[in-house]
Specification:
A two-stranded antiparallel sheet has the order 1-2. Helix 3 runs antiparallel to helix 4. By secondary structure, the chain is mainly α. The protein has one domain. The protein has four helices and two strands. The chain is elongated. The relative contact order is 0.17.
């Protein structure tokens, strides 16, 4: 299937550029790396994880709620039997936020390594397909 993808990219690139000459290996690798959906997905994943790093460093949101018991039929809260206002804020143990940030940073490193792995696999596949196509 990768061979078919490479050949399709090769023919599309030749058609777009109007080339009748051969595509060099470096051009083929560059085209495959630029247009590969796996690489684009891995790059977007890194972007998402950067957002998670920012989110990990934030304090959890406070919560506010209002509860009313025995609401009259005319929905007048002044005639309600009991009205409760609640406010709560989650308190974290020391170091928990730092550990969340560190975990998110490790996830980013893993995503970057995965991106490099995908690029190397695609480059190797293009090399194999390119030389098989020539011979």
């Amino acid at each position: 299937m990768n061979k078919q993808i490479f050949l399709i990219i090769l023919f599309i690139t030749s058609a777009i550029l109007g080339q009748t000459e051969k595509l060099s290996l470096n051009e083929a690798i560059e085209t495959a790396l630029k247009n590969n959906p796996q690489i684009l997905t891995a790059e977007k994943e890194i972007f998402v994880i950067e957002g998670k790093i920012l989110q990990a460093g934030r304090i959890p949101n406070a919560e506010f709620s209002i509860e009313s018991n025995e609401i009259p039929t005319d929905l007048s809260f002044s005639k309600a039997g009991e009205l409760d206002f609640n406010f709560s804020q989650q308190l974290e143990f020391f170091g928990k936020r730092r550990m969340r940030i560190q975990s998110a940073e490790y996830q980013k490193q893993i995503a970057k390594l995965n991106l490099e792995r995908i690029k190397k696999i695609i480059t190797a596949q293009v090399n194999i397909d390119y030389y098989q196509f020539l011979h």
